[in-house]
Amino acid sequence: MRNIGDVLLTAPVFANLREYYPDARICALVNSGTEAMLTDNPLIDHVHVYQRTIKSAPLITRLANELKLLKKLRAEHFDLVINLTEGDRGAVVALLSGAGYKVGVKSYGRGFRGKDRVFNRVVPYPAEGTHTVEQNLELLEAAGVPVTGKMVSFHFREQALAEVDRMLADAGIRPGGYFHAHFTSRWMFKCMPPAAAALLIDTLADRSGLPAVLTAAPVDKELAYLQLVKQACRTSPVDLSGALTLKEMGALTSRASFFAGVDSAPMHMAAALDVPVLAVFGPSSVTTWGPWDNRLDANPYRNSRGIQSTGRHLVLQSERACVPCHRDGCNGSKKSDCLDFNAEEIDHVTTTFIQMLQNE
What we know:
By secondary structure, this protein is of the alpha/beta class. It is built from twelve helices and twelve strands. The longest helix is centred in the first third of the chain and has 17 residues, at about 60-75.
């Protein structure tokens, strides 16, 4: 019941559930707009969707829709509910689901009174430095389900791949002959200044000998930001911003030589598809949100800041003592000074990343 990238990082939960309960009916409940992260996954029987838009509907309409969803969930006759988030809605769904066994995150007094009593087992909030992938799997272990793997996966159909191949052909680009650059986020405080993003894109294009294919969500603020990046670019990237679905975004990444971008859902999608990632982080914690390396079985990020590598993925983050601050920009500005990297820093990280690619 969170955002796009959060939902994608729940994929190992379903893989382990399917391994332990091969014949069970296994479903997910997610917010609308995030379901593409789990649909087409062969390990999941059905993805139920809560339509967030009904929050602004008249009360009667909203209640009718809420009851309709709850009726569908109760009709599933679930034996087990695992609530991966600490919000009230997931706890209410767990309570009303009819499931005999329920596992959730300890509330620490947040939310409605008595929320922890909804669950048979509550899991304490994980220790600092625990990756989100492993946070989710802690709830599985509390439910008595052994964890045998930690691989994140993302699935799309051939139709998405065919559409992306058509777009690339129209732009005169062959599959594998480009890198995917996604430097926008719904949270703009995670974005680099446009000139710095353009310099990073240009330097990667120079070092790799490949053009960049730019993407962004079909959202005005992201599209406006990307136009500023393009204007500052010396090279000539291909612009597919606002033109792709989330499934097509994944298909585009799967055809790329590598991915470069900020801490966002497309970064997690690239890592899930085992595409090498150069990720730029600002106020967020890399140990919690860094691109997961499917070749490893543990969190490879040990430092709270600075450049870190998994061997396949490389993270650029400032060495400033205030990083990560977990805030939405410096002093309420919605802009993060720690993301304003200079030419020397960009030169160093791109050199390191291209050498990593060559050594793979």
